Amino acid sequence: MSKTHQYLFGPVPSRRLGRSLGVDLIPFKTCTMDCTYCQLGETTCTISERGDYVSMQDVLAELDGWRATDGAADHITLAGSGEPTLHTHFGDVFEWVKKNTSIHSVLLTNGTLLHDPEVRAGAALADKVKVTLSAWDEASFQQIHRPAQGITFDLLISGERVFREEYSGELSVEVFIVEGVNSQIYNVQKIVEVVESLNPDRIDINTAIRPPAVKGIRPATEDRLLALSEMFGPKANVAATFKKQGLQSMEISEDALMGLIKRHPATCEQLASEYNLPEDQMFKTLKQMVSSGLLREEKGGGVTYYFHRAD
Ligand code: SF4
Fold first, then answer.
1. Contact in structure between 16 and 278 (CB atoms under 8 Å)
2. Would 57 be classed as within a structural domain?
3. What per-residue confidence (pLDDT) applies to 247?
4. Tell me: the pLDDT tens digits for 83-99?
5. Is residue 59, in this structure, part of any structural domain at all?
6. What domain count does the chain have?
7. How many angstroms does the Cα of residue 56 sit away from the middle of ligand 1?
8. What is the residue with the minimal CA distance to atom 4 of ligand 1?
9. Beta strand 18-23 with 75-78: parallel, antiparallel or unpaired?
10. What is the CATH number of the domain that holds 187?
11. Is the CB–ligand 1 distance for residue 34 below 6 Å?
């Protein structure tokens, strides 16, 4: 992207989605949950009330501008700084995509608001929807996700199940494994049973490879994820990007990199892997962006993470 965007970020390369343009409708860390593993840090506004958090007119105008200039992506994905279905009119983005492009649309949601028929109607406009399911009962749900008042495990599951019955697009479930919290075989077996009840088209097994919201939250190793993913059967894949193969390299645009880092603080190694570029090339770009005040560095666990300057 050639100009700075407020609501759009990327396109970022993705093994599954190709070049994915992100659309972010929610102020930073406004979410229905405060997940211990969240890579954006602790939720500053844990809320379940929906609203017009940003002007949809401005978002659609930005999309119009993007289409008129770059306009190239394989997917357009609603994701970013919080829970996208909190925006009362998030479905308008999918309508815009259908009306103006032949690009596939994707919704990444934690699924907590799918009990609301209006949210299900908006979500059903997306070609692909990914929901979260990493707990197996109320206690584990509270421990891992720390949801807003009134959001319970039963509400999450019943909403996701009704949505599955109504939705004819591709439904994925993301299972986020936190080492020592939901990684034990007997707990994973219970998660498998709940996930199977949703009859998803695919299952993505993930872990916290970026700095988590809560100190002490540990990622599972790649070997462990691979072993656990087998318990979910043939629809399961390990989604954590320990390394990427078969991706085309992408040119680094400072604007796209800023948009990505704002939503996903990351190491040089992780960013080089995202873009499938040599680490020294990525390192040089990051250093330049630190020198010019766009990014800041923070050391943790023996590695350096890059953050958006304002975070
Ligand atoms: S991981 Fe997703 S659902 Fe959980 S707090 Fe972060 S943004 Fe919200």
1. no
2. yes
3. 47
4. 999 999 999 999 999 99
5. yes
6. 1
7. 22
8. 35
9. parallel
10. 3.20.20.70
11. yes
